[in-house]
Amino acid sequence: MAERVVIVTDSTAYLPTGLDVELGITVVPLHVVVNGRAGTEGVDVSPADVAQALAERRGTVSTSRPSPADFAATYRALLADGADGIVSVHLSSELSGTWDAARLAAAECVPEAVRVVDSRTTAMGLGFAVLAAAEAAEAGTGLPEVERIAEQTVDRTTTLFYVDTLEYLRRGGRIGAAQKWLGTALAVKPILHVVAGRIVPLEKVRTAGKALARLEELAVSAAGDAEVDVAVQHLAAADRAAGLADRLRAGLPGLHRLYDSEVGAVVGAHAGPGLIGVVVVRR
Question: Domain 5-30+65-155's class?
Answer without folding.
Answer: alpha beta
